[in-house]
């Protein structure tokens, strides 16, 4: 590639412009083509390559050209610089999106809140007119203000944006759709808006909502099954006195009804085959995101049009749906049903193909087992990694436990294989129990292909002797029985069902003191030496937790099973999560009945040391009172100073409202107001706090929102005047 070509490509990517590099394979000459402005035969071919987003060859005028599209970075445009926008901007940048935040409210759109993000302090319609949305743009309206959101959505609906979302409840979204419909947008247009925005994962916090939005965008962008739509509009029927495809039905050309329904159903791409009266059909489809295919042989029958449409379907499509252009009554629900059916059938066909290939022992991709590499789509042995695999199997037979093997691998500095994925590299970490156990049970090492817990003779060579592999499997089975017997003897009824609040399994253990055995459940990551990954409560007394759960379940199940014992009640438990201040119990679906699952049981572990307090006599409550703790005093004085500073900003006009301070500090409006109220506390009370003479028990909460009169403040706090 020539230097000037590379410089222009870099500049185009920076400016958000699509270019296609055309390389003449016979002369070696190359040129950059803008498909939006170049309507020559080479420009049309470049536009087709850009639409498929793949490099391809084409022959024009007896010369062969290689066309490679260079798309600009996908962008996400966020309307409203709210809290959720901060989290969404960070996630989008990490996912490789170019991020723009548009909000005319300068108090919200600040570089302090949005570092390394393009901020535009303009009204959305003005900002989007200056820099329009493209087919690689996503727009998310988060302002929750119709003046901002509606204007942005109206612009987005008229653009080829790949994703449009809007924050708000279902009722808010219904009112939003009614306003946009009054502006002239059709139901087909409004169906493009994802509202309420984000996947339904129960998100509540700004960070969780941002994750749901990014997940929905990625799902929309990288749908696993892609179905194309082919609209046959090449016919020459004039039974209505003129071309029936452009006859108006409900104020819209007949062919436009079919195309809009196909677009709303998510068919991608939508290919329209034209042949007769092409200029009129093109005019009827003006502005529609479709690909037009010319069929010069349309007079020979519908089969020619069908063949032309199928030939234009991209290679990365998994199926295609054919529609007739004269189907004005086709509904979105019907198309969605057919599209979903096509996706399910295609997915089932792919799964059957994979299963059949696995039975033949063919390597079908996936995570590459340690010790192998892929050569010509087949597994071949990697000598260096194969030696490591054999060493792990040998050491397990000698040491006898997975934990001992992990310790030795860590001492030797052995790490997992580093793999390259679309999002970067993964691996290169210490071995843990799960991955190492999977490696020791992997039948790929004896030349077998595994599919859904069944194995078949594979095409690849065996890495291990079957005798060594069988010996390791026997040792694993013996160890599992030993653990099972020990678990059963311990009486730990929640084994395998109890987790901490970070999802880590809690394993049973015990200690002996004074000849007595005390049982506990401990987060497994603590046993594995990964204490930083443990949950809030990582060690609990087993008997106390089990008794609390069984007691609660006995009350719930008494009406249904009066003879239920502890074992039968424990058998109804699906999962137990130890959270801060409570235990969450999920029951099996067949036993929940009318009771909600999970069941939340209030519980907290007892502190390791008993709390001791000095009890003062009742005669004089103000005599010899203990002073405020030093750490509480320091916090109180910092809050008072901050409240006085914010009050000064408001009085001098540096900040307009408390809302602006709240947005800047990432707090709620009430939190800011309560902090400012500390500025009105009597000076002698603040002085007493600074000297450490303020009685214990008078903290930040009691000093907030006091009466304005200082005498009433002292009286309310129980202080001497």
CATH class of the largest domain: Alpha Beta
The radius of gyration is: 34 Å
- Helix run count: 25
Under the CATH scheme, the architecture of the largest domain is: 3-Layer(aba) Sandwich
Arithmetic mean of pLDDT: 81
Low-confidence stretches: none
Largest sheet: 6 strands, parallel
Helix content: 40-55%
Shape: globular
Major sheet strand order: 7-6-5-8-9-10
Could you explain how this protein is built, in words?
It is a single chain. The chain starts with a helix and ends with a helix. Helix 13 (383-399) packs across helix 16 (466-490). Helix content is 40%, strand content 19%. Strand 8, helix 5 (146-157) and strand 9 form a beta-alpha-beta unit. It is built from 25 helices and 29 strands. It is an alpha/beta fold and 721 residues long. The protein is globular and about 100 Å long. The strands form nine sheets. Strands 7-6-5-8-9-10 form a six-stranded parallel sheet, with helices on both faces. A four-stranded antiparallel sheet has the order 2-1-4-3, with helices on both faces. A four-stranded parallel sheet has the order 15-14-11-16, sandwiched between helices. The protein has six domains: 3-70, no CATH class; 75-221, Rossmann fold (3-Layer(aba) Sandwich); 227-355, Alpha-Beta Complex (Spore Coat Polysaccharide Biosynthesis Protein SpsA, Chain A); 372-479, Hect, E3 ligase catalytic domain fold, CATH 3.90.1750; 498-602, no CATH class; 630-717, no CATH class.
């Amino acid at each position: 590639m020539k230097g000037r070509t590379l410089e222009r490509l870099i500049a185009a990517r920076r400016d958000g412009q699509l270019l296609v590099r055309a390389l003449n394979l016979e002369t070696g000459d190359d040129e950059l083509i803008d498909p939006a402005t170049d309507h020559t035969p080479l420009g049309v071919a470049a536009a087709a390559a850009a639409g498929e987003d793949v490099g391809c060859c084409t022959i024009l005028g007896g010369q062969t050209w290689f066309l490679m599209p260079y798309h600009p970075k996908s962008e996400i445009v966020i309307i409203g610089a709210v809290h959720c926008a901060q989290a969404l901007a960070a996630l989008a940048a990490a996912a490789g999106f170019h991020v723009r935040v548009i909000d005319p409210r300068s108090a919200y759109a600040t570089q302090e809140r949005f570092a390394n993000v393009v901020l535009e302090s303009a009204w959305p319609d003005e900002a989007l007119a200056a820099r329009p949305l493209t087919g690689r743009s996503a727009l998310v309206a988060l302002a929750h203000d119709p003046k901002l959101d509606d204007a942005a959505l109206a612009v987005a609906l008229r653009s080829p944006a790949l994703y449009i979302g809007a924050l708000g409840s279902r009722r808010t979204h219904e009112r939003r759709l009614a306003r946009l419909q009054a502006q002239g947008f059709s139901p087909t247009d409004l169906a493009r808006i994802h509202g309420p925005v984000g996947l339904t994962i129960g998100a509540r916090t700004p960070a969780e909502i941002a994750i749901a939005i990014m997940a929905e965008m990625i799902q929309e962008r990288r749908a696993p099954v892609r179905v194309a739509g082919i609209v046959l509009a090449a016919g020459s029927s004039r039974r209505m006195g003129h071309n029936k495809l452009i006859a108006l039905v409900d104020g819209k050309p007949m062919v436009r009804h079919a195309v809009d329904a196909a677009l709303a159903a998510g068919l991608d791409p939508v290919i329209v085959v034209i042949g007769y009266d092409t200029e009129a059909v093109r005019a009827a489809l003006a502005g529609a995101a479709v690909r037009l295919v010319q069929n010069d042989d349309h007079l020979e029958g519908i089969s020619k049009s069908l063949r032309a449409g199928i030939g234009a379907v991209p290679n990365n499509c998994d199926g295609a749906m054919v529609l007739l252009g004269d189907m004005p009554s086709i509904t979105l629900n019907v198309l969605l049903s057919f599209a979903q059916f096509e996706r399910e059938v295609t997915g089932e066909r792919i799964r059957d193909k994979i299963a059949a290939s696995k039975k033949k022992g063919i390597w079908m991709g996936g995570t590459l087992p340690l010790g192998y590499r892929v050569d010509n789509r087949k597994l071949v042995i990697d000598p260096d990694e194969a030696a490591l695999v054999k060493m792990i199997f040998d050491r397990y037979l000698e040491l006898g436990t997975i934990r001992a093997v992990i310790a030795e691998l860590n001492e030797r500095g052995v790490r997992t294989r580093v793999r390259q994925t679309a999002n970067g590299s993964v691996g290169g970490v210490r071995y843990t129990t799960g991955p190492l156990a999977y490696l020791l049970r992997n039948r790929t090492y004896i030349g077998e292909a595994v599919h859904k817990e069944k194995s078949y003779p594979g095409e690849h060579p065996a890495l291990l002797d079957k005798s060594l592999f069988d010996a390791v499997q026997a040792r694993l089975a013996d160890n599992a029985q030993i653990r099972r017997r020990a678990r059963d003897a311990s009486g730990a009824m929640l084994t395998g069902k109890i987790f901490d609040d970070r999802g880590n399994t809690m394993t049973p253990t015990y200690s002996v003191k004074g000849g007595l055995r005390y049982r506990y459940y401990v987060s497994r990551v603590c046993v594995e030496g990964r204490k930083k990954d443990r949950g809030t409560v990582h060690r609990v007394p087993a008997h106390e937790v089990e008794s609390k759960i069984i007691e609660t379940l006995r009350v719930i199940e008494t009406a249904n099973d009066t003879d239920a014992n502890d074992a039968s009640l424990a058998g109804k438990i699906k999962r137990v999560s130890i959270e801060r201040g409570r235990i969450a119990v999920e029951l099996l679906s067949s036993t929940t009945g009318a009771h909600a699952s999970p069941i939340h049981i209030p519980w907290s572990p007892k502190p390791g040391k008993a709390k001791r307090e000095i009890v003062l006599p009742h005669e004089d409550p103000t005599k010899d009172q203990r002073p405020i703790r030093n750490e509480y005093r320091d916090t109180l004085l910092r809050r008072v100073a901050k409240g006085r500073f914010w009050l000064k900003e408001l009085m001098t006009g540096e900040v307009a409202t408390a809302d602006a301070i709240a947005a800047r500090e990432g707090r709620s409006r009430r939190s800011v107001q309560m902090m400012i109220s500390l500025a009105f506390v009597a000076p002698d009370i603040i002085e007493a706090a600074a000297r450490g003479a303020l009685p214990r028990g008078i903290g930040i909460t009691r000093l907030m929102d006091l009466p304005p009169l200082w005498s009433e403040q002292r009286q309310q706090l129980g202080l001497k005047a």
